[in-house]
Amino acid sequence: MTKDGAPRQTSQEVERLRRRYAIRHVLARCGVYGAAVLASLVCALPFLWSAVSAFKQNRDLYNPESSPFLFNEPATPDHVRFLFSDTPFLTFVVNTLLVGALVVVLTLALALPAAYSLARLNRPWGTPMGIAIFLVYLVPPSLLFLSLTRVVVALGLEDTIWSMVVVYPTITVPVSVWLLIGFLKAVPKDVEEQAMVDGYSRLGAFGRAVLPLVFPGIVAVVVFSFTLTASEFVYALAFVSASPEMVVSTGVPTQLIRGDVFFWQSLQAATVTMAVPIAFLFNLFLDRFVTGFTMGAVKT
């Protein structure tokens, strides 16, 4: 008996309780990992379906009794070969990468100074200005279409990839500024002041002391801007009609959907070809991307 009158547990009872808790812990961990694996398989099914469909023969694809995830007929690379040899798919990919890279550079060049000034300069209009910049992102593209068309025509950029380079920052910059404002507010002002005491100018202190600390936020901006640019459809379709200047989001449907004829296997091959490298790069920077969004959201 213990001092308070409760019965003392024997070593066998303690060992039995320890084993019971250990079994519960293992079962809980198995349940969590099992749910994660199940969720991953569910998310991967569309990609698996696209990969299998890209190599299916027509009679296998259009047979309702065939399994969509299995090759009921021998696989064929003809549709993938058609995508790369009979359509300017590689030109679309190059245009997409070029537009995405230029838009990312412009977005950082515009968003970083704007976010830094709004986060550091104590002005009464700072917060309303930041909110107003973010509200620009919420304006539907259909409302900005006419005004942006006038800008593109006035600059003589119609039917060129430069029209998208000019237009896309109107979508990416507002969100990037809002994100970077919150992230810059998480950096203490003492960091810049100490750098300026050491002899750096404000610009030098920003480049040497602040930028390394906000690198996760910059990665978030880069990933967000590039993915948004690569998937945008309305402006790309409206401002570019010449096939050599198209990007993947408009060029692939234009080339592979002709009237009521769908080159379905080639469409799926294009989807897989673009999804794999983007997913690989996204996973490389996933931790910094999530950190940038979460920390920026907390400090906004």
From TrEMBL:
Which residues span the membrane? Answer: 26-49, 92-119, 131-155, 161-188, 209-242, 262-286
* Record Pfam families: BPD_transp_1
Q: Which organism is it from?
A: Actinomadura rudentiformis
Designated name of the protein: Carbohydrate ABC transporter permease
Lineage in the entry?
A: Bacteria, Bacillati, Actinomycetota, Actinomycetes, Streptosporangiales
Superkingdom as given in the UniProt entry? Bacteria
Similarity field: Belongs to the binding-protein-dependent transport system permease family.
- Gene Ontology terms describing biological process: transmembrane transport
Q: Which InterPro entries does this UniProt record tie to the protein?
A: BP-dep_ABC_trans_perm (IPR050901), MetI-like (IPR000515), MetI-like_sf (IPR035906)
Where found, per UniProt?
Answer: Cell membrane
Q: Which GO terms describe its cellular component?
A: plasma membrane
Q: Could you tell me which PROSITE patterns the record lists for this protein?
A: ABC_TM1
Which residues does the UniProt record annotate as the domain ABC transmembrane type-1? 93-285
Q: Which CDD domains match?
A: TM_PBP2
Q: Where is the signal peptide?
A: none
Q: Which UniProt keywords apply?
A: Cell membrane, Membrane, Transmembrane, Transmembrane helix, Transport
Annotated membrane topology is: Multi-pass membrane protein
